Amino acid sequence: MNEDTWALVLDVVGRVQRAIGLDQAPAIVVLDGDRRQILADYDYQHDDTARLAFETRAAEHARNLHLHRFAFAVPRVITPSEPGVISSRAVSHYSLRPGEQEAILWSAYDTADGLDLGLTHYARRPAGQPVFDSPTIFDRPMAAQDHMPGIRLLHLLTATDPSPTFPPEPGPPPESNLP
To answer: What is the pTM of this model?
Structure first.
């Protein structure tokens, strides 16, 4: 990942961290092209329709900006379910279940360097204040599913037919092949 893209990752993760500190859980994307644009959505975690709508709006803005790179981040609750696979769900005010952990999932794309994926773990002090680790990049090959933040945006930007197919075919609950 080049320095400019890493700077976008640090920017978007920092924005999500500040929102989490205010008990908010938005999806945030930083689009970098002819100029920089930042978009946030608080409904992103509600359902697939909200996720698709936000990533579609972001793709429209990205095309207008002549995008060079983007970084996308959203807080999630993750559960390692088997080696190399992490399941995730929307954050909530309920207690974490055994094995669950809070994290910010992020994706970064650069037209010259391609896609990078990662996460930033965080925990809460007894009074509820979040304490964040540093962002980490997944260093193993993985298959990112469409529910990974920013993947639909990437598909919309790189597809020959930019109109998404929705709703998705019914199937098992979403999982990511995250290390």
So the answer is: 0.85
